[in-house]
Protein backbone atom coordinates (compact mmCIF):
# COMPACT_ATOMS: atom_id res chain seq x y z
CA UNK A 1 0.00 0.00 0.00
CA UNK A 2 1.32 3.40 -0.96
CA UNK A 3 0.64 6.57 0.95
CA UNK A 4 1.97 10.09 1.10
CA UNK A 5 2.65 9.60 4.80
CA UNK A 6 3.20 6.81 7.28
CA UNK A 7 1.04 8.64 9.83
CA UNK A 8 -2.55 9.91 9.57
CA UNK A 9 -5.09 11.33 12.02
CA UNK A 10 -8.56 9.84 11.91
CA UNK A 11 -10.53 13.08 12.36
CA UNK A 12 -8.98 14.38 9.15
CA UNK A 13 -10.07 11.31 7.22
CA UNK A 14 -13.77 11.48 8.15
CA UNK A 15 -15.93 12.51 5.23
CA UNK A 16 -13.25 11.93 2.58
CA UNK A 17 -14.31 10.39 -0.72
CA UNK A 18 -13.19 6.80 -1.32
CA UNK A 19 -12.36 5.78 -4.89
CA UNK A 20 -11.66 2.50 -6.63
CA UNK A 21 -8.46 2.11 -8.73
CA UNK A 22 -10.31 3.25 -11.89
CA UNK A 23 -11.23 6.54 -10.27
CA UNK A 24 -14.91 5.74 -9.72
CA UNK A 25 -16.27 7.02 -6.42
CA UNK A 26 -17.17 4.17 -4.06
CA UNK A 27 -18.55 6.34 -1.27
CA UNK A 28 -17.51 8.43 1.71
CA UNK A 29 -15.45 7.42 4.73
CA UNK A 30 -17.57 7.53 7.88
CA UNK A 31 -15.43 5.74 10.47
CA UNK A 32 -12.32 3.68 11.11
CA UNK A 33 -12.40 0.21 12.68
CA UNK A 34 -9.69 -0.65 15.24
CA UNK A 35 -9.06 -3.96 16.97
CA UNK A 36 -8.07 -4.04 20.65
CA UNK A 37 -5.10 -6.37 21.15
CA UNK A 38 -4.78 -5.89 24.92
CA UNK A 39 -2.99 -3.38 27.15
CA UNK A 40 0.55 -4.36 26.12
CA UNK A 41 0.09 -3.81 22.37
CA UNK A 42 -1.30 -0.88 20.37
CA UNK A 43 -4.73 -1.35 18.84
CA UNK A 44 -4.61 -2.31 15.18
CA UNK A 45 -6.56 -0.51 12.46
CA UNK A 46 -8.29 -3.27 10.50
CA UNK A 47 -10.38 -1.27 8.05
CA UNK A 48 -12.65 1.63 7.28
CA UNK A 49 -16.42 2.06 7.14
CA UNK A 50 -17.59 3.57 3.85
CA UNK A 51 -21.06 4.96 3.19
CA UNK A 52 -21.98 3.85 -0.33
CA UNK A 53 -24.94 5.08 -2.42
CA UNK A 54 -28.19 3.99 -0.83
CA UNK A 55 -26.97 5.05 2.63
CA UNK A 56 -25.56 1.58 3.31
CA UNK A 57 -22.30 1.39 5.24
CA UNK A 58 -19.82 -1.27 4.20
CA UNK A 59 -16.46 -2.48 5.46
CA UNK A 60 -13.25 -2.07 3.46
CA UNK A 61 -10.23 -3.86 5.01
CA UNK A 62 -6.94 -2.00 5.33
CA UNK A 63 -5.31 -4.62 3.11
CA UNK A 64 -7.31 -3.09 0.25
CA UNK A 65 -6.46 0.54 0.96
CA UNK A 66 -3.99 1.58 -1.72
CA UNK A 67 -3.49 5.20 -0.64
CA UNK A 68 -4.67 7.63 2.01
CA UNK A 69 -4.20 11.20 0.86
CA UNK A 70 -5.35 14.49 2.42
CA UNK A 71 -8.16 14.75 -0.14
CA UNK A 72 -9.11 11.15 -0.96
CA UNK A 73 -8.71 7.47 -0.20
CA UNK A 74 -8.09 4.88 -2.90
CA UNK A 75 -8.90 1.21 -2.45
CA UNK A 76 -7.98 -1.72 -4.63
CA UNK A 77 -9.33 -5.17 -5.24
CA UNK A 78 -12.81 -6.41 -4.43
CA UNK A 79 -15.13 -4.90 -1.84
CA UNK A 80 -17.93 -6.70 -0.03
CA UNK A 81 -21.14 -4.66 -0.27
CA UNK A 82 -22.81 -6.33 2.68
CA UNK A 83 -23.78 -3.94 5.44
CA UNK A 84 -21.00 -3.46 7.99
CA UNK A 85 -21.42 -5.34 11.26
CA UNK A 86 -19.11 -4.75 14.17
CA UNK A 87 -17.31 -7.76 15.66
CA UNK A 88 -16.10 -8.72 19.12
CA UNK A 89 -13.09 -6.62 20.10
CA UNK A 90 -13.56 -4.09 17.31
CA UNK A 91 -14.27 -0.43 18.04
CA UNK A 92 -15.41 2.39 15.82
CA UNK A 93 -12.91 5.19 16.35
CA UNK A 94 -15.14 8.21 15.74
CA UNK A 95 -18.30 6.71 17.22
CA UNK A 96 -16.80 5.00 20.28
CA UNK A 97 -13.23 6.13 20.99
CA UNK A 98 -13.47 9.87 20.39
CA UNK A 99 -14.61 11.54 23.65
CA UNK A 100 -13.38 8.49 25.61
CA UNK A 101 -11.94 9.41 29.01
CA UNK A 102 -8.28 8.49 29.59
CA UNK A 103 -5.88 8.86 32.51
CA UNK A 104 -2.19 9.70 32.17
CA UNK A 105 0.16 7.00 33.45
CA UNK A 106 2.49 9.62 34.94
CA UNK A 107 -0.23 10.57 37.39
CA UNK A 108 -0.77 14.02 35.88
CA UNK A 109 -4.54 13.70 35.62
CA UNK A 110 -7.27 12.82 33.17
CA UNK A 111 -8.28 13.84 29.69
CA UNK A 112 -10.65 13.21 26.81
CA UNK A 113 -9.64 11.79 23.41
CA UNK A 114 -10.27 14.23 20.55
CA UNK A 115 -8.35 12.49 17.77
CA UNK A 116 -6.32 9.34 17.15
CA UNK A 117 -3.10 9.05 15.13
CA UNK A 118 -2.50 5.91 13.06
CA UNK A 119 0.98 4.82 12.02
CA UNK A 120 1.99 2.30 9.37
CA UNK A 121 4.39 -0.37 10.56
CA UNK A 122 7.15 -2.00 8.54
CA UNK A 123 4.97 -5.03 7.85
CA UNK A 124 2.27 -2.77 6.37
CA UNK A 125 -0.14 -2.92 9.32
CA UNK A 126 -1.62 0.29 10.66
CA UNK A 127 -1.76 0.69 14.45
CA UNK A 128 -2.90 3.33 16.91
CA UNK A 129 0.24 5.34 17.67
CA UNK A 130 -0.95 8.50 19.41
CA UNK A 131 -3.89 10.12 21.11
CA UNK A 132 -4.70 13.82 20.83
CA UNK A 133 -6.08 14.54 24.27
CA UNK A 134 -7.79 17.49 25.89
CA UNK A 135 -6.70 17.57 29.51
CA UNK A 136 -9.28 17.73 32.26
CA UNK A 137 -8.67 18.60 35.88
CA UNK A 138 -4.93 18.07 36.57
CA UNK A 139 -4.09 15.28 38.93
CA UNK A 140 -1.25 16.62 41.07
CA UNK A 141 1.02 19.58 41.92
CA UNK A 142 3.60 18.69 39.27
CA UNK A 143 0.92 18.59 36.57
CA UNK A 144 -0.59 21.83 37.81
CA UNK A 145 2.73 23.61 37.30
CA UNK A 146 3.38 22.02 33.92
CA UNK A 147 0.03 22.11 32.15
CA UNK A 148 -2.94 24.42 32.29
CA UNK A 149 -6.40 22.97 32.63
CA UNK A 150 -7.92 22.16 29.23
CA UNK A 151 -4.58 22.07 27.42
CA UNK A 152 -4.45 19.76 24.42
CA UNK A 153 -1.53 17.37 24.20
CA UNK A 154 -0.33 14.63 21.85
CA UNK A 155 0.69 11.47 23.72
CA UNK A 156 1.87 7.99 22.74
CA UNK A 157 -0.66 5.19 22.97
CA UNK A 158 1.18 3.62 25.93
CA UNK A 159 1.25 6.85 27.98
CA UNK A 160 -2.44 6.72 28.84
CA UNK A 161 -4.94 4.24 30.21
CA UNK A 162 -8.35 4.24 28.55
CA UNK A 163 -11.41 4.42 30.76
CA UNK A 164 -13.70 1.43 31.13
CA UNK A 165 -16.42 1.09 28.49
CA UNK A 166 -19.03 1.06 31.28
CA UNK A 167 -18.19 4.65 32.23
CA UNK A 168 -20.41 7.43 30.85
CA UNK A 169 -18.81 8.90 27.75
CA UNK A 170 -19.37 12.26 26.09
CA UNK A 171 -20.21 12.47 22.40
CA UNK A 172 -19.26 16.05 21.57
CA UNK A 173 -16.68 15.14 18.94
CA UNK A 174 -18.89 12.66 17.13
CA UNK A 175 -21.87 15.00 17.00
CA UNK A 176 -19.75 17.91 15.75
CA UNK A 177 -18.05 15.78 13.08
CA UNK A 178 -21.39 14.53 11.73
CA UNK A 179 -23.56 17.62 12.00
CA UNK A 180 -23.87 17.79 8.19
CA UNK A 181 -25.44 14.33 7.95
CA UNK A 182 -29.08 14.13 7.00
CA UNK A 183 -31.30 12.76 9.81
CA UNK A 184 -31.68 9.37 8.09
CA UNK A 185 -27.90 9.04 7.67
CA UNK A 186 -27.23 10.06 11.27
CA UNK A 187 -29.82 7.51 12.39
CA UNK A 188 -28.01 4.85 10.35
CA UNK A 189 -24.81 5.64 12.25
CA UNK A 190 -26.67 5.45 15.58
CA UNK A 191 -28.19 2.11 14.66
CA UNK A 192 -24.75 0.57 14.17
CA UNK A 193 -23.60 1.55 17.68
CA UNK A 194 -23.86 -0.39 20.91
CA UNK A 195 -26.93 0.36 23.04
CA UNK A 196 -24.84 2.35 25.51
CA UNK A 197 -23.07 4.45 22.90
CA UNK A 198 -26.29 5.05 20.96
CA UNK A 199 -27.86 6.63 24.03
CA UNK A 200 -24.75 8.71 24.77
CA UNK A 201 -24.65 10.15 21.27
CA UNK A 202 -28.41 10.69 20.98
CA UNK A 203 -28.64 12.57 24.27
CA UNK A 204 -25.85 14.90 23.12
CA UNK A 205 -28.03 16.16 20.25
CA UNK A 206 -30.07 19.34 20.41
CA UNK A 207 -33.80 18.70 20.87
CA UNK A 208 -34.76 19.66 17.31
CA UNK A 209 -31.99 17.51 15.81
CA UNK A 210 -32.95 14.53 17.97
CA UNK A 211 -36.59 15.03 16.98
CA UNK A 212 -35.58 14.72 13.30
CA UNK A 213 -33.36 11.67 13.87
CA UNK A 214 -35.64 9.57 16.11
CA UNK A 215 -38.32 8.73 13.50
CA UNK A 216 -35.59 7.30 11.24
CA UNK A 217 -34.71 4.63 13.83
CA UNK A 218 -36.42 1.28 14.48
CA UNK A 219 -39.21 1.49 17.09
CA UNK A 220 -37.29 -0.29 19.85
CA UNK A 221 -34.32 2.08 19.50
CA UNK A 222 -36.63 5.11 19.56
CA UNK A 223 -38.12 3.86 22.81
CA UNK A 224 -34.67 3.12 24.24
CA UNK A 225 -33.46 6.67 23.58
CA UNK A 226 -36.64 8.42 24.72
CA UNK A 227 -36.68 6.35 27.93
CA UNK A 228 -33.09 7.38 28.68
CA UNK A 229 -34.07 11.08 28.82
CA UNK A 230 -35.52 12.75 31.87
CA UNK A 231 -39.27 13.24 31.50
CA UNK A 232 -39.19 16.96 30.84
CA UNK A 233 -36.60 16.68 28.09
CA UNK A 234 -38.45 13.73 26.56
CA UNK A 235 -41.59 15.89 26.40
CA UNK A 236 -39.60 18.73 24.79
CA UNK A 237 -38.30 16.36 22.10
CA UNK A 238 -41.81 15.03 21.42
CA UNK A 239 -43.02 18.62 20.96
CA UNK A 240 -40.36 19.13 18.29
CA UNK A 241 -41.43 16.01 16.38
CA UNK A 242 -44.16 15.92 13.74
CA UNK A 243 -47.37 14.94 15.57
CA UNK A 244 -47.76 11.69 13.63
CA UNK A 245 -44.19 10.64 14.45
CA UNK A 246 -44.67 11.56 18.10
CA UNK A 247 -47.90 9.57 18.22
CA UNK A 248 -46.23 6.53 16.65
CA UNK A 249 -43.49 6.67 19.29
CA UNK A 250 -45.87 7.18 22.21
CA UNK A 251 -47.96 4.24 20.98
CA UNK A 252 -44.98 2.00 21.84
CA UNK A 253 -45.12 3.09 25.50
CA UNK A 254 -47.49 2.11 28.29
CA UNK A 255 -50.65 4.17 28.81
CA UNK A 256 -49.19 5.56 32.05
CA UNK A 257 -46.01 6.70 30.29
CA UNK A 258 -48.03 8.24 27.47
CA UNK A 259 -50.16 10.29 29.85
CA UNK A 260 -47.18 11.44 31.91
CA UNK A 261 -45.39 12.74 28.81
CA UNK A 262 -48.50 14.30 27.27
CA UNK A 263 -49.16 16.19 30.50
CA UNK A 264 -45.67 17.72 30.27
CA UNK A 265 -46.10 18.79 26.64
CA UNK A 266 -47.53 22.13 25.55
CA UNK A 267 -51.33 21.74 25.37
CA UNK A 268 -51.64 22.49 21.63
CA UNK A 269 -48.97 19.93 20.66
CA UNK A 270 -50.33 17.38 23.13
CA UNK A 271 -53.87 17.73 21.77
CA UNK A 272 -52.72 17.01 18.21
CA UNK A 273 -50.96 13.86 19.39
CA UNK A 274 -53.88 12.74 21.56
CA UNK A 275 -56.23 12.90 18.58
CA UNK A 276 -53.94 10.64 16.56
CA UNK A 277 -53.63 8.14 19.39
CA UNK A 278 -57.41 7.69 19.44
CA UNK A 279 -57.45 6.06 16.01
CA UNK A 280 -57.08 2.37 15.33
CA UNK A 281 -53.72 1.33 13.90
CA UNK A 282 -53.40 1.37 10.08
CA UNK A 283 -56.28 3.79 9.55
CA UNK A 284 -55.90 7.08 7.70
CA UNK A 285 -56.41 8.91 10.99
CA UNK A 286 -53.59 7.05 12.73
CA UNK A 287 -51.00 7.83 10.05
CA UNK A 288 -52.01 11.36 8.97
CA UNK A 289 -50.45 14.64 9.99
CA UNK A 290 -53.01 16.93 11.66
CA UNK A 291 -51.19 20.11 10.58
CA UNK A 292 -51.05 20.29 6.75
CA UNK A 293 -51.10 23.64 4.87
CA UNK A 294 -54.67 24.93 5.23
CA UNK A 295 -55.96 28.22 3.80
CA UNK A 296 -59.38 29.79 3.15
CA UNK A 297 -60.71 30.23 -0.41
CA UNK A 298 -60.09 33.99 -0.20
CA UNK A 299 -56.32 33.51 0.26
CA UNK A 300 -54.16 34.40 -2.72
CA UNK A 301 -51.67 32.39 -4.70
CA UNK A 302 -48.91 34.56 -3.24
CA UNK A 303 -50.01 33.67 0.32
CA UNK A 304 -50.16 29.99 -0.59
CA UNK A 305 -46.68 30.00 -2.07
CA UNK A 306 -45.34 31.67 1.06
CA UNK A 307 -47.01 28.98 3.18
CA UNK A 308 -45.53 26.03 1.29
CA UNK A 309 -42.03 27.52 1.43
CA UNK A 310 -41.79 26.82 5.15
CA UNK A 311 -38.59 24.92 5.82
CA UNK A 312 -40.14 22.45 8.25
CA UNK A 313 -42.59 21.10 5.65
CA UNK A 314 -41.77 17.80 3.96
CA UNK A 315 -41.83 17.81 0.13
CA UNK A 316 -45.03 15.73 0.19
CA UNK A 317 -46.86 18.19 2.45
CA UNK A 318 -45.53 21.22 0.58
CA UNK A 319 -47.01 19.93 -2.68
CA UNK A 320 -50.63 20.65 -1.73
CA UNK A 321 -52.68 23.41 -0.11
CA UNK A 322 -55.95 22.30 1.47
CA UNK A 323 -58.76 24.83 1.19
CA UNK A 324 -61.42 24.97 3.89
CA UNK A 325 -63.94 27.26 5.52
CA UNK A 326 -62.84 28.68 8.90
CA UNK A 327 -61.82 27.64 11.45
CA UNK A 328 -58.58 26.67 9.74
CA UNK A 329 -57.16 24.54 12.58
CA UNK A 330 -58.10 20.86 12.37
CA UNK A 331 -60.85 19.84 12.57
CA UNK A 332 -61.62 22.70 10.21
CA UNK A 333 -64.80 24.13 8.80
CA UNK A 334 -66.19 22.49 5.66
CA UNK A 335 -63.54 21.01 3.37
CA UNK A 336 -63.72 22.59 -0.13
CA UNK A 337 -60.85 21.11 -2.14
CA UNK A 338 -57.13 21.36 -2.85
CA UNK A 339 -54.74 23.46 -4.88
CA UNK A 340 -51.67 21.65 -6.18
CA UNK A 341 -48.34 23.42 -6.28
CA UNK A 342 -48.23 23.22 -10.09
CA UNK A 343 -51.41 25.32 -10.23
CA UNK A 344 -49.86 27.84 -7.85
CA UNK A 345 -46.81 28.19 -10.08
CA UNK A 346 -48.96 28.75 -13.19
CA UNK A 347 -51.27 31.39 -11.76
CA UNK A 348 -50.82 35.09 -11.02
CA UNK A 349 -49.93 35.97 -7.40
CA UNK A 350 -53.16 37.94 -6.71
CA UNK A 351 -55.42 35.07 -7.87
CA UNK A 352 -57.74 33.74 -5.16
CA UNK A 353 -57.42 30.04 -4.32
CA UNK A 354 -61.18 29.58 -4.61
CA UNK A 355 -61.00 30.27 -8.34
CA UNK A 356 -58.37 27.58 -9.07
CA UNK A 357 -59.69 24.94 -6.70
CA UNK A 358 -59.51 21.24 -7.55
CA UNK A 359 -62.79 20.08 -6.03
CA UNK A 360 -62.78 16.72 -7.83
CA UNK A 361 -60.25 15.15 -5.45
CA UNK A 362 -62.36 13.14 -3.05
CA UNK A 363 -61.07 13.07 0.54
CA UNK A 364 -60.69 9.81 2.44
CA UNK A 365 -62.40 9.07 5.72
CA UNK A 366 -60.28 9.18 8.83
CA UNK A 367 -61.45 5.60 9.44
CA UNK A 368 -60.36 4.31 6.00
CA UNK A 369 -57.78 1.54 6.17
CA UNK A 370 -54.31 1.71 4.70
CA UNK A 371 -55.18 -0.38 1.64
CA UNK A 372 -57.82 2.14 0.53
CA UNK A 373 -55.46 5.07 1.14
CA UNK A 374 -52.60 3.47 -0.81
CA UNK A 375 -54.90 2.56 -3.73
CA UNK A 376 -56.17 6.14 -3.92
CA UNK A 377 -52.65 7.60 -3.89
CA UNK A 378 -51.49 5.17 -6.58
CA UNK A 379 -54.58 5.55 -8.80
CA UNK A 380 -54.32 9.32 -9.05
CA UNK A 381 -50.51 9.63 -8.76
CA UNK A 382 -50.76 11.78 -5.64
CA UNK A 383 -48.27 12.58 -2.91
CA UNK A 384 -50.93 13.45 -0.30
CA UNK A 385 -54.63 13.02 0.38
CA UNK A 386 -57.09 15.07 2.46
CA UNK A 387 -58.55 13.22 5.44
CA UNK A 388 -62.02 14.18 6.75
CA UNK A 389 -64.19 13.08 9.65
CA UNK A 390 -67.85 12.01 9.50
CA UNK A 391 -68.94 15.69 9.40
CA UNK A 392 -66.82 16.48 6.32
CA UNK A 393 -64.32 18.55 8.27
CA UNK A 394 -60.64 18.26 7.39
CA UNK A 395 -58.77 16.55 10.21
CA UNK A 396 -55.42 16.08 8.46
CA UNK A 397 -53.56 14.83 5.42
CA UNK A 398 -51.92 11.50 4.75
CA UNK A 399 -48.79 11.50 2.58
CA UNK A 400 -47.16 8.82 0.49
CA UNK A 401 -44.21 8.58 2.91
CA UNK A 402 -46.64 7.99 5.80
CA UNK A 403 -48.16 5.09 3.87
CA UNK A 404 -44.78 3.60 2.96
CA UNK A 405 -43.71 3.64 6.60
CA UNK A 406 -46.73 1.50 7.43
CA UNK A 407 -46.60 -0.82 4.39
CA UNK A 408 -42.92 -1.72 4.55
CA UNK A 409 -41.74 -4.51 6.88
CA UNK A 410 -40.95 -3.44 10.44
CA UNK A 411 -37.24 -4.09 9.87
CA UNK A 412 -37.04 -2.19 6.57
CA UNK A 413 -34.63 0.38 8.03
CA UNK A 414 -32.06 -2.32 8.78
CA UNK A 415 -32.81 -4.91 6.06
CA UNK A 416 -30.46 -4.93 3.09
CA UNK A 417 -32.42 -7.01 0.63
CA UNK A 418 -30.24 -8.76 -1.92
CA UNK A 419 -26.57 -7.97 -1.47
CA UNK A 420 -24.42 -7.60 -4.53
CA UNK A 421 -21.13 -9.14 -3.56
CA UNK A 422 -17.85 -8.12 -5.05
CA UNK A 423 -15.62 -9.87 -2.57
CA UNK A 424 -15.49 -10.93 1.05
CA UNK A 425 -14.69 -9.25 4.30
CA UNK A 426 -11.15 -9.90 5.47
CA UNK A 427 -8.98 -8.37 8.14
CA UNK A 428 -5.65 -8.99 6.64
**Distance between the first and last residues' Cα:** 13 Å
What class would the helix/strand composition place it in?
A: alpha+beta
The tally of beta strands, per DSSP, is 19
Question: Which oligomerization state do the chains in this entry correspond to?
Answer: single chain
Estimate nothing, just give the exact number of structural domains.
Answer: 3
Helical fraction: 25-40%
**Looking at CATH, which topology of the largest domain would you report?**
SH3 type barrels
Q: Provide mean pLDDT, rounded.
A: 88
Count of alpha and pi helical runs = 18
The CATH architecture of the largest domain would be Roll
**Runs with pLDDT <50, length 5+?**
138-148, 417-428
Q: What percent of residues are in strands? A: 15-25%
Question: Measured on Cα atoms, how large is the radius of gyration?
Answer: 26 Å
CATH class category of the largest domain: Mainly Beta
Write a concise keyword list for the protein shown above.
428 residues; alpha+beta; SH3 type barrels; MgtE N-terminal fold; CBS-domain; 13-stranded mixed β-sheet; three-stranded mixed β-sheet; elongated; CBS_dom; SH3_actinomycetes; magnesium ion transmembrane transporter activity; MgtE_N_sf
What do these coordinates show?
- With 428 residues, the protein is of the alpha+beta class.
- The protein has three domains: 169 residues, SH3 type barrels, CATH 2.30.30.240; 97 residues, MgtE N-terminal domain-like (MgtE N-terminal fold, Alpha Horseshoe); 114 residues, CBS-domain (Roll).
- It contains 18 helices and 19 strands.
- The strands form three sheets. Strands 1, 2, 3, 4, 5, 6, 7, 8, 9, 10, 11, 12 and 13 form a 13-stranded mixed β-sheet that branches.
- The longest helix has 11 residues.
- The two termini are 13 Å apart.
- The C terminus is likely disordered.
Amino acid sequence: MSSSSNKVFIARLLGLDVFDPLGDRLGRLRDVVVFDRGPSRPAQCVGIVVEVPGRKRVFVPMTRIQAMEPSQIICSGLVNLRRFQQRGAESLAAAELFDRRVSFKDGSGNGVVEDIGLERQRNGDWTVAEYFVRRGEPGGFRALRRLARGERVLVRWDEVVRGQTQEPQAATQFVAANEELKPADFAEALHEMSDKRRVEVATELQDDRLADVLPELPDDEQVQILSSLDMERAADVLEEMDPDDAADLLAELSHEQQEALLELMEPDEANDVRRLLEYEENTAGSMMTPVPVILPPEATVAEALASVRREELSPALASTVFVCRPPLETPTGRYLGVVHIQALLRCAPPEALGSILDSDLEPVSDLADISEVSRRLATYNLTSLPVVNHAGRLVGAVTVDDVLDHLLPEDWRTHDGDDKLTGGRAHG
